[in-house]
């Protein structure tokens, strides 16, 4: 699967983080403590792997819902946090790989996941995500290669900026990051043509930004690109991606901004294992969030 991140300004929108993420103070999800729960959580220095699910509900030939094990943080062992505190996180190298984790206690939890295509349509401005059609073959040609960073940056970024602009009515849209996730490709050590690693699926309940890291990311994009910034290849200079005046207006209330993830399957065949799951933004309780820090060589991020 492929993910692309965007910043949008202007236009009314109620979702705080959108496309496939939900909730403003985004981070790891905690599993609320229960008196009758079975303690099967464990401290971990590495990301968890996917596990088999439970029951499946069908309607004719259409899959309606499944029971699957999702990895939350254990609320009895990990304190909630909306800001950085140095207690939970990892370090990330220049190729995009993570080092040892610290402060995490994963709590596998059986969860009902419904087929979004069989539900009433969701909306970006209501649930925080929605499904949209985008035919790459028609837009970019049948030879488009999602494992080629240059093609993604030079051709795919503009196409998806257009898609996000149509979905939101934003006055400005900037694509600034992407990655490719593939369980088999990650296991075999497959890389993009630029040398970046193909990432494994993220087997944790999470979103990508917090109350403080989202505006900080916006500020970062008005500065010269850092080592891990993919968008530096768009400019081919040390010029910022977003004009400082636009960032200033957004942060001072003269405008608004939103960070949006766009996910897609990069093959014609449906995703067979580890499909993407998202949650309704209204079901995320800030008291159940944990800030997770990612330390890069020249900056840090919080998710």
Structure characteristics:
single chain, 303 residues, alpha+beta, six-stranded mixed sheet, four-stranded mixed sheet, 6 helices, 17% helix, 24% strand
Describe the model.
The chain is α+β, with helices and mostly antiparallel strands and 303 residues long. It has 6 helices and 13 strands. Strands 3, 4, 5, 6, 8 and 11 form a 6-stranded mixed β-sheet that branches. The protein has a 4-stranded mixed β-sheet with strand order 2-10-1-9. Strands 7-12-13 form a 3-stranded mixed β-sheet, with no helix packed on it. A hairpin with a 2-residue loop joins strand 5 (56-59) and strand 6 (62-74). The longest helix is centred in the middle third of the chain and has 20 residues, at 149-168. The chain is globular and about 50 Å long. The chain starts with a strand and ends with a strand.
């Amino acid at each position: 699967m492929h993910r692309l991140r965007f910043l949008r300004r202007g236009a009314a929108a109620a979702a705080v983080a959108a496309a496939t993420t939900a909730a403003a103070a985004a981070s790891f999800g905690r599993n609320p403590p229960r008196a009758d729960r079975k303690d099967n959580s464990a401290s971990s220095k590495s990301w968890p792997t996917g596990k088999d699910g439970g029951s499946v509900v069908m309607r004719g030939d259409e899959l309606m819902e499944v029971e699957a094990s999702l990895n939350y943080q254990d609320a009895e062992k990990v304190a909630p946090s909306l800001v950085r505190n140095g207690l939970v996180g990892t370090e990330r190298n220049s190729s995009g790989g993570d080092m040892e984790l610290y402060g995490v206690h994963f709590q596998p939890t059986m969860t009902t996941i419904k087929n979004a295509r069989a539900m009433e349509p969701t909306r970006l401005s209501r649930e925080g995500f929605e499904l949209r059609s985008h035919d790459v073959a028609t837009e970019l040609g049948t030879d488009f290669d999602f494992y080629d960073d240059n093609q993604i940056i030079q051709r795919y970024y503009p196409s998806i900026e257009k898609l996000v602009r149509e979905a939101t009515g934003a006055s400005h849209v900037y694509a600034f990051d992407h990655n490719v996730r593939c369980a088999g490709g990650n296991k075999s050590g497959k890389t993009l043509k630029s040398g970046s690693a193909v990432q494994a699926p993220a087997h944790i309940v999470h979103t990508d930004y917090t109350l403080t890291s989202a505006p900080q990311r916006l500020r970062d994009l008005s500065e010269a690109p850092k080592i891990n910034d993919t968008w530096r290849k768009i400019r081919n200079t040390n010029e910022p991606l977003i004009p400082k005046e636009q960032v200033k207006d957004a942060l001072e209330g003269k405008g608004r901004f939103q960070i949006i993830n766009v996910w897609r399957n990069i093959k014609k065949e449906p995703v067979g294992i580890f499909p993407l799951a998202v949650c309704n933004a209204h079901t995320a309780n800030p008291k159940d969030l944990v800030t997770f820090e990612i330390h890069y060589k020249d900056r840090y991020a919080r998710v």
